[in-house]
Design brief:
Elements (H helix, E strand, L loop, with lengths): L3 E2 L6 E2 L30 H6 L4 H16 L3 E10 L4 E11 L2 E9 L2 E2 L20 H8 L5 E10 L2 E10 L9 E2 L5 E2 L2 E9 L5 E9 L2 H4 L1 E14 L5 E16 L2 E17 L14
Antiparallel strand pairs: 1-2, 3-4, 3-15, 4-5, 5-6, 7-8, 8-11, 9-10, 11-12, 12-13, 13-14, 14-15
Helix pairs in contact: 2-3
Length: 285
C-alpha cells in the first residue's frame, strides 16, 4: 500500500519509509516483505489481557487479512483541499490490484495532469493509504500499539464501541511525518477507533501525531477516515473507505497559524477489468 504524501515536503504519513511518490501516475510501490511467524502478532492476546478488548482482537484478525480479501477494483477519488487563500479540487482514478494502489487520470481543478508530473506547488496536502495502512499497521508489529476501551456510543444511529490507541515514539517504526524544513520524524501517535459493537468492524479511525510546535513548526495534524460496507459492481460488498478528512496547521511562537483541510470522498467502486489489444504480426504497438 502507498504512503500518505504531502507535496512541498510538509507532511508524510507512511506505512514504511518508501522512496516512492504515491501520487505519481502509473507508479506502484515495492511489495513489503512477508512477515515471518515470529513477527506475526497473536490477536487473541488483546482479549486475554482485558475482556473489554475482545473487539480489538476481532479487528486485529480482520486487519491482518484485509488486504488479501479485497478484490481488484477501480474507484474514483475526489479531494477538495481548502487552504487559507484557495480551494483546489483534485480528481483521480484509484486502481487497487493485487493489494496495491495505483493512481491515474489525475486532474487539478478540471485540468489533466500529464503522467509523471508532480502536483502544482499550491497543493499543500495530499493523503492516501486509507485502503490499508491506517488500519493494518496498528497490528503488524507485535507490542507496538496500546489499546484502551473508552465507552459505548452511537454513530449514525448505530451502536459502536470506542477505543483509544497509543503508539509510543520508541515503538513507532511505521508512521512518520515530514516537517516544513524537510526533516522526517517518527513521533508518538495517538488515536481513536469506533468499532461496530457486534461485529468489531471498523467504522471510523482518528489519527493524530504528537509533535513539538516549537521545533517542527507543525501546530497540529489530524486525520479521520470513515469506513462502510460498500458494493463493488457484481463482486459483492466489502468494507472500504468512503470518506476521510485531514487537517494540518503550520505555525509557531513567532508565526501565524495557517491551516489546510482536505476532504476526500471515495465513490463509484467497480470491478477492475484488464484490457489488451491483439496486433497483426510485424505491426507496431
Amino acid at each position: 500500500m502507498k504512503a500518505i504524501h504531502v507535496c512541498q515536503g510538509l507532511l508524510l504519513w507512511v506505512a514504511a519509509l518508501l522512496p516512492v511518490a504515491p501520487w505519481a501516475q502509473n507508479t506502484v510501490p515495492p511489495q513489503k516483505a512477508v512477515p515471518q511467524p515470529s513477527d506475526v502478532i497473536d490477536c487473541n492476546t488483546f482479549a486475554a489481557q482485558d475482556g473489554r478488548l475482545a473487539l480489538i482482537s476481532k479487528l486485529c484478525t480482520f486487519a491482518l487479512t484485509y488486504r488479501s480479501k479485497l478484490p481488484d477494483f477501480i474507484a474514483q477519488q475526489t479531494t477538495t483541499s481548502h487552504g487559507a487563500r484557495s480551494t483546489i479540487v483534485i480528481k483521480s482514478q484509484v486502481t487497487y490490484r493485487q493489494g496495491l494502489e495505483q493512481y491515474s487520470q489525475i486532474t487539478v481543478n478540471g485540468k489533466a495532469l500529464p503522467p509523471d508530473t508532480p502536483l502544482p506547488t499550491n497543493v499543500h496536502l495530499i493523503t492516501s493509504g486509507e485502503f490499508g495502512p491506517l488500519l493494518i499497521n496498528l497490528f503488524e508489529v507485535p507490542d507496538s500499539t496500546e489499546f484502551k476501551f473508552v465507552k459505548t456510543d452511537a454513530l449514525d444511529s448505530s451502536p459502536v464501541s470506542v477505543f483509544d490507541f497509543h503508539l509510543p515514539k520508541d515503538k513507532n517504526s511505521f508512521w512518520a511525518i515530514r516537517a516544513p524544513r524537510g526533516e522526517t520524524l517518527k513521533p508518538e501517535f495517538r488515536g481513536r477507533l469506533w468499532l461496530d459493537s457486534e461485529t468489531g468492524r471498523i467504522v471510523r479511525e482518528e489519527v493524530e501525531p504528537v509533535v513539538n510546535e516549537n521545533t517542527t513548526w507543525i501546530h497540529s495534524v489530524k486525520l479521520d477516515a470513515d469506513y462502510a460496507m460498500t458494493r463493488v459492481g457484481d463482486l459483492g460488498t466489502f468494507l472500504l473507505p468512503t470518506k476521510s478528512e485531514s487537517k494540518m496547521c503550520l505555525g509557531g511562537p513567532q508565526y501565524l497559524v495557517s491551516c489546510t483541510t482536505n476532504v476526500v470522498v471515495f465513490h463509484d467502486y467497480r470491478k477492475f477489468i484488464a484490457t489488451s489489444r491483439i496486433l497483426p504480426a510485424g505491426s507496431q504497438p
